[in-house]
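Minutes, project check-in
Item: structure for the 195-residue chain
Input as provided by the requester:
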Amino acid sequence: MEPEPQSSWWKWVAGAGALLVLVALAYLLLAPAKQTPPAVPVTLPESGASGNGAPGNSGAGMSVSGAGGAVAVSDFLKSPTTAPDAQNAGVYYLAGSSCAPDAMYAWCPRGADTGGKFNITYNKNDQSFIVVLLAEPLGAERQVAEQFLEQALGVQATQLCGLDARVETTNSVNEQYAGKNLGFSFCPGATPLPQ
């Protein structure tokens, strides 16, 4: 007596179908929910009277040491737009994020929304800042990032030159300028960038 060929074929199809249903259910139940945050224009901190004499500093100040000595700044770490990086102790996002724009993880730090054009981080451990330009034209984006940082810290542009800071871009944005400290546009030794 020969086995019925159609009977074993149906069993294989039913088993594969059941497996696909299980995989689909597991994906739906275990995958993180993707929520796209609404697009918001770059919001600069409000300027106002300062506790340390710097414009834009609306609260108590703090001091950040740099190459030019200590610089009095507003306590930007207490700003509602400054976000601690849960993965890196002592690192704070003043602007932008380390995550993809559509990533909605609890550990994902998000500073002020820059539309994905630049990130600004502060490392409390060595009191340094990193500005990463993520869009062209680099010159124009650097100026927006500089204005943001001036207002966030409540300082004048020239005071940024005294900070321990790097301004850089990534290889995927511009290979010519990637890996270099481009500097703040108004500081000595800054790299001229296309506007």
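Outcome recorded: The radius of gyration is 25 Å.
No further action items on this chain.
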